[in-house]
Amino acid sequence: ITFKTLMICITAICVCLTTISAITLASKHLRRYTVPKEQRQIVRIVSMPMFFAIVSLLSVLFYQQSIYLKPLMAAYEAFCVAGLFFLFLEYVCPEEEKRTAYFSAVENKDKKGNVIPGGSLLWFNVRNSPPFLRSTQRTWVCVLQFPLMKALLTIAEIGTQAGNVYCANSLSPDYAHLWLLLIDIFILGPALTALFKFYGRLKPVFPRKHHALAKLVAFKGIVIFQFLLDVIFGILNGKTFKPSAKFTYNDLYYGLPMMITAFQALCFSLAFHWAFRSRMY
């Protein structure tokens, strides 16, 4: 048995288990579809591990095509980040027409605890806010820029891969990998930070039955783990991992990280049953 065959078997098992887990959880919400604005976001998020696992299996099966498949995971992930933000909005202020007034009324405090006028999150009324607040507290901009920019980065990555100027194993400025990685870090950081700040600032307002912190931790776990996996293998594949009689270059470069991704997807899919439970609906 070759190492690739072993990886295919392991990844296929992970895909089957992840698919069963994700469909089971999604079907629970769909059977109790009593709050559509919340549950449509939940179904989208809990389907993410299944999508990751399927893409991972296809990438292990078809090494050369994996460079065009893998970026799709990041794009789906980015839209789920926005989905989690919209879910939190529903928890805090379900009536959309009242959000401007609601967030404007939230007190904003400086490091010394003094109240700063203008509202904490400055929802859509940033035009009338003090200049020093406009650039720092546009929570919705920080989050919603992520799926848009990530979609553009995905197109750029697929295009540069096709043009043989991406080179994932190199951090040379001569290749697109370095620049796209830096842009990715630049857009990911504000989105995650904004979500954490949003939760931290409004933590007392979140209904306890929804376990918002569990959702945030579980979802951010899969996002951060995938990001670190990409960075680690991007570095190690060019230096530490070398082909041998048992492992080909393609096994280490394409197969191994995607097999780990499939296993990670299975683990988080199971964790989502705890974080995104349906019993409160």
TrEMBL record:
Stretches of the chain forming a coiled coil according to its record: none
GO CC annotation, single: membrane
Superkingdom assignment: Eukaryota
Keywords: Membrane, Transmembrane, Transmembrane helix
TM helices/strands, residue ranges: 42-62, 74-92, 178-200, 212-236, 256-276
UniProt name for this protein: DUF300-domain-containing protein
Pfam families linked: Solute_trans_a
Organism: Melanomma pulvis-pyrius CBS 109.77
Location(s) in or outside the cell: Membrane
InterPro entries in alphabetical order: Ostalpha/TMEM184C
Signal peptide annotation: none
Topology of the protein relative to the lipid bilayer: Multi-pass membrane protein
UniProt keyword Translocase, yes or no: no
